[in-house]
Each structure stands twice: as C-alpha cells, then as structure tokens.
Design brief:
Elements lengths: L1 H18 L3 E5 L1 H17 L5 E6 L1 H10 L4 E4 L5 H11 L4 E14 L7 E2 L1 H9 L16 E5 L4 H9 L11 E3 L2 H10 L3 E6 L7 E6 L5 E2 L3 H6 L5 E8 L5 H11 L1 H10 L6
Parallel strand pairs: 1-2, 1-3, 5-9, 6-7, 6-8
Antiparallel strand pairs: 3-11, 4-8, 4-9, 4-11, 9-10
C-alpha cells in the first residue's frame, strides 16, 4: 500500500509538469522577432500555455528538428532534400512545411549613400568581389564594405542562390551573427552594404532592386505579394510530421487573422 501511495504521489507530481510542457520553436534569425511576438500574444490569450522561441539561424533550427530537440523549426529557406531525408530516416515520416509569412530580402546601405537602386547583376558583382567601389554602380568614389550573414542562416543561403547564383561570397565579406548586427554595421559604415529581412531596416536606407520588367522595386507589401520584387520569399515553419496537439494549436494561431495581423505589425507580410 505504501508503495502504491508513493507511486500515485509521483504520478500526481508529474501531471502538472507534463501539462505545462512548452512548445519549442527554434531557427531563423529573420523570423525570431515575429515568432517571439506570436508566442507572447498566444500565451497571453491562452494562460497556462508555454511557447519558447530561440534563434540561431534556419540551419540550426532544421538541425534541431532532425535531432528531436525542437518541436518547430523556423526557416527563411526551404528544407534541402538531404535534410528531409534525415527526418524520414530517423522518424519514418517526411517533415511538414507550413508557409506562415512572406518577406522581401532587403538591401541595406548607409543613409548617406546616394545609390537608390541596383540590378541583380550589380549585386552579384558586388558580393563576389568584382565591383569594389561605389562609383562603379553610380555612387561616390568610396570603397564598398560588404556585410553578410553566417552560413547557418537561411537568408545567406537564399541570397547565395538567388543573387550569387551559387557563386562564393567575396573573401572580403564580413559575416555577422544576425540581421540586427548587419543593420547596425551598415548604419555606422558609410561604404557599407548588407542584406536581410525587410522588418529590420531601421536607421539604414533600403535600395530598390530591379525586377524582371526592368523597373526598380522596394520590398513593400504590394511588391512582395505581386512577385514584382525579385527577392521576395516565403517564411516557413517545419514540423517532423503533421502538426498535432499543442504544436498545431500554436501554428493555427500564427495563421489566424490575429496572428497574421501581427505579421504586418512586425514589418513582414501576411501569407494570406
């Protein structure tokens, strides 16, 4: 009888702990501010629910999804086929991809820089190191200082694929651990250029990017939604299988009208 009572007491103690288990969200630095806002609002509306959000980059989040240390991976790029294969190999299911917002990868320059637009080809030449002075693209006689994200970043991968066309970044490109660090560096460096999520563009100037029709476009809601902005992209949440339980409830909230309103408030663009 004594053993039974002890076992029941242990079980009773465990139930609250299980009930309060947090949904864990990890990954994209681009998405971390948005995910934190979602988590805060969701927890305010649902007392007793817990959502823990950390960044580290899309690659870090996807790795955590694969090894089972996060429920949701935030990613500003699509999962690669080998990453999906690892999930299937380990869990016998394919990961579920859920687009939750839209973004335009913005190009930041210092506010004193008179350059107002660039083509994809010019950006390619700048970031592979073929163009090293702003006068080569219509700006002042000033050395270009390159800032980039680290290679665990989904934005780094997206930019390499869509701007560098798979070429390597110039050795002179300074890699920084987050988009906020890129913005801060460009704000202080008159010759600086960097890239990242549109929501981070504070204290810097956004350069328009020339689209397929030859017109220059800013990463605005209209231009991202229409696809005219050439560096528009979806932002994803990934789960190991179809979302269920508390994970599904949180993702459903993110996709709800309330959740999508927060997307706009943070500075990104609704998926719906």
């Amino acid at each position: 009888m004594k053993r039974m009572l002890l076992a029941l007491a242990a079980l009773a103690a465990a139930v609250p702990a299980l009930a309060s288990a947090a949904v864990t969200v990890k990954g994209s630095d681009t998405m971390v501010i948005l995910a934190q806002r979602w988590a805060e609002d969701y927890m305010n509306k649902n007392p007793g629910k817990k959502v823990q959000v950390t960044g580290g980059g899309s690659g870090t989040g996807i790795a955590a999804l694969i090894n089972g240390t996060t429920d949701i991976a935030n990613a500003s790029r699509s999962m690669k086929s080998d990453e999906k294969g690892k999930v299937r190999e380990r869990y016998s299911v394919l990961p579920t991809e859920i687009p939750v917002a839209q973004d335009g990868v913005a190009l930041y320059v210092n506010e004193s820089n008179p350059v107002s637009q660039l083509t994809i080809d010019q950006l390619h030449q700048i970031y592979v190191g073929d163009v090293t002075n702003w006068k080569q693209v219509g700006g002042p006689d000033q050395r270009i200082v390159l800032y980039s994200r680290e290679n665990s970043s989904g934005t780094y991968v997206f930019f390499k694929e869509h701007v560098l066309k798979g070429d390597d970044y110039a050795p002179a490109a300074q890699t920084l651990p987050g988009t906020a660090a890129v913005v801060n560096a460009v704000a202080k460096e008159k010759g600086g250029i960097g890239y990242g999520g549109a929501a981070y563009a504070k204290g810097v100037k956004e350069v328009k990017v020339v689209g397929a029709d030859g017109q220059a476009y800013a990463p605005s809601a209209e231009n991202v939604k229409s696809g005219k902005y050439p560096l528009a992209r979806p932002l994803f949440m990934y789960t190991r299988a179809k979302p269920a339980g508390e994970v599904k409830a949180f993702i459903d909230y993110c996709l709800s009208p309330e959740g999508q309103q927060l997307v706009t408030k943070v500075g990104y663009f609704p998926i719906k």
